[in-house]
Amino acid sequence: MAAVTRYTADGVAMARYLVDQLPPAANEVFERAEQGVDVIEAPTIAVTEAIWTAVNKEDIAGVSVDTTPNAVLRGLVNDGPIQIAAADEQDLAVCGSLIDHHTMHDALLIANHRVRGTEAILTNDREFGSETTIWE
Q1: What's the rounded Cα separation, in Å, for the pair 31 and 22?
Q2: pTM recorded for the entire structure
Q3: b/e per residue, 66-87, with b = 16+ CB within 10 A?
Q4: β 133-134/59-60 pair status
């Protein structure tokens, strides 16, 4: 049996997943996670960003959105492919080493990726340029 590949998702990737507007490479990872072939994890702050975006923005990637926080959580975590990766002491230590160069949000996402050894970050954010990312 092939080993499971693990990825870290940012809020934008999860929000675009909800409206089926991911580019092909990111979409393939989400499809494999839906099938249980791979795993997508996201720190709490990134899941919170996806919830906030879906509830407070009128559209995501040009698609009109009208939803609730619980519906978003269900679509991502309960019925979706996302596993929440809560921060621990190791995440916070790595985050602390990054906050001089990144926002708190980005530092926590990078820390999640590094501490858990995920294959890549699913993002279109250029601020993660020093990390392996998947988008297009």
Answers
A1: 11
A2: 0.94
A3: eeeeebbbebbbeebbbeebeb
A4: unpaired
